[in-house]
Amino acid sequence: MGHLFRAELRKVGATPVTWWLLVSTVAVGVLGTIAPLIAADGESTDLLSDHRIREALHGAAGGAILVLVAGVIGMAGEWRFGQASQVFLSTPRRSRVVGVKTVVYLGLGALYGLVAALAATATAWGWYRARGLALPLERSAVWLTLIGCVAVAALFGVIGVAVGAIVRRPVPALVGALTWTVLVEPALFAAAPSVFRWLPGVASLSLRRQPAEHLLPVGSACAVLLGLVTVALVVGVRQVERDDVTG
Amino acid sequence: MRSRQGEIACRSLTKVFGHRSVVDDVSFDVPAGTITGFVGANGAGKTTTMRMLLGLVTPSAGTALVNGRRYRDLEHPRREVGAVVDGPGAHPGHSARTHLSVIATAAGLPLRRVDEVLDLVELTEHAQRRVGGFSLGMRQRLALAGALLGDPGVLVLDEPVNGLDPPGILWVRNLLRQLAGEGRALLVSSHLLSELAEIAHRVLIIDHGRLVADTPLDELLVGQSVVELRCADPAAMERALRARRLRVVTEGDTLLIEGASARETGELAAAVGAGPVHWLTERPNSFEDVYFRLAGSPIRQPGTAADAEVA
Question: Which ranges does the record mark as transmembrane (chain A) (predicted)?
């Protein structure tokens, strides 16, 4: 397993899209933090309230969607250029391949989340400082939001791997995952919050402390996400183990 | 490279996709120290057979063993089997060296092997280039490098000369001979029948999923010949040949006849009044001729000859 783990790290590190997505994570983290602060600029609200701080630092959540993309590409992309054959020639026990990718993208997700959190914190710190305020880093609203964003990014990396293992065609997998996360879930939640708060994307809002009503408690949201990730991974491993590699 | 040995054994190998039987009850051996050519039309079942051997496709029935074990049960598969399937299987954004390093790392092979095989396939000066910019021939060389990384005793090569230029083909030919000479077992598929005839010790011919020949190449060609005949009345001659249940193919104004000697053909032409005879010669059958006869296809390329085989 150690060999396979090192090989996966080498592959991920040498793949340009990994680094492009990481750079994009910084950009999304900065923009996602500035946008709510700009929106709040003309309002007479307290920039130092927990609500406003959470809203601003929530920009770090941008890392999650990008690591979802990285996970899907990392798994389903193996079938795009015939790499899957080479991978399984080296490691015929395919569940090990999915297992190693799960660990690698969990870690990569945490890295993306951490980078996004740092970008969001630095941006918010600069914004507050420009207005003669100090971002209260000691406040739980700050670090619980940031920790939540990092945790969600890590889990979304694993979700990406699971979706990639189930679909194994990068474009449909990406389009499906992004459409579901960015469009379908928010629409369903807006239509019936009490019903659709159990969906994974909505549950992640609670974990990363987005200020919104009707969300699950953090513990429940965490359990929902972990449960869904586990089920998706089991299905993905079964698919990869069972299906023939014909191209 | 040190001397390595290995062998392949397939027994009653069968693969059914849905209701379509792609490989049907195929059994063969590839002994150590031999090159076995694997021939068949597109869709005949060559690639599926090779993928079953490599654990990429699950057989519907039968077994495919390498050194007495299923591929997935091999402890160090890359050290025992090298394979070329569908090109190098490299990410286009990776360099040749990165691609091979990933394979070597996953297989627990020393990274020095990467430089050794790059040198062997003459890609050292392109090692840092992205695979996406490689020509087809360079991609084939990279695929061969990947197959040789583990210095395996068994090689399963699906169309290894596809895309190579004539010097590249000659290079592969010499390389495969050298590898077999070291005791390795090679299973090599190719559409270039003349190329296989140059290097193969044994030949497997597969047609519509069924093995129609498994024999040493020498034995396959022994006693096989084609008679070429041009005469004044080819239609009458063709009818006479059909009546004697001989296989005859027309190619332009020439009849190609199997199963009769030049003398018998000339005598028959005289007997049925198809003369005068303008051209009569007997030549050894080529591997292509035998292949097309066994695989049930025309002797020449489709469209250039009308198969007039007697049913």
Answer: 20-40, 60-81, 102-128, 140-167, 174-196, 216-237
Could you tell me which of B113, B186, B177, B120 has the C-alpha nearest to residue B150?
A: B113
CA–CA separation, B234 and B254 (whole Å): 8
Of B57, B81, B94, the CB nearest to A245: B57
Q: Which residues of chain B have pLDDT under 50?
A: 1-3, 298-311
Q: Report residue A240 CA to chain centroid gap.
A: 23
Q: What is the CATH number of the domain that holds B249?
A: 3.30.70.980
ipTM for the assembly = 0.86
DSSP string, B249-308: EEETTEEEEESS-HHHHHHHHHHHT---EEEEEEEEPPHHHHHHHHTTS-SS-BTTBEE-
> In sequence order, which ranges of chain B are alpha helices (DSSP H)?
46-53, 77-80, 96-106, 112-120, 136-148, 166-181, 193-199, 217-221, 234-243, 262-272, 287-294
Question: CB neighbours (10 Å) of residue A72?
Answer: 29
User: Which of A6, A85, A245 has its CB closest to that of B105?
Assistant: A6
Per-residue model confidence (pLDDT) at position A42: 66
Q: Give, as one character, the DSSP assignment of residue B232.
A: S
Q: Which pair of structure tokens corresponds to residue A1?
A: 């397993």
Residues in chain A whose beta carbon is closer than 8 A to a beta carbon of chain B?
A: 3-4, 6-8, 10-11, 14-17, 77, 81-93, 244-247
Q: At B47, list the tokens.
A: 């690639």
Return the CATH number at B209.
3.40.50.300
Judged by a CB distance cut-off of 8 A, whether residue B106 touches chain A is yes
Tell me which of B185, B217, B249 is where a domain ends: B217
Residue A142 in tokens = 């700050």
Please report the pLDDT score of residue A76 as a whole number: 92
